Amino acid sequence: MKRKSVFLSDGRLSVLLIAVILIIDQIIKVTVKTNMCLGESIRVTDWFFIEFIENNGMAYGITFFNKLVLSLFRIALIGVIAYYICKLVRREHSTGYVVCLSVILAGAAGNIFDSMFYGLIFEASTPFDVAGLVPFGSGYASFLHGKVVDMFYFPLIVTTWPDWMPFWGGREFIFFSPVFNFADACISVGAVVLFIFYRKELESINEVLLHSRKADSGNPDRDVAEE
Question: Which residue spans traverse the membrane (predicted)?
Answer without folding.
Answer: 12-28, 68-86, 98-121, 173-198
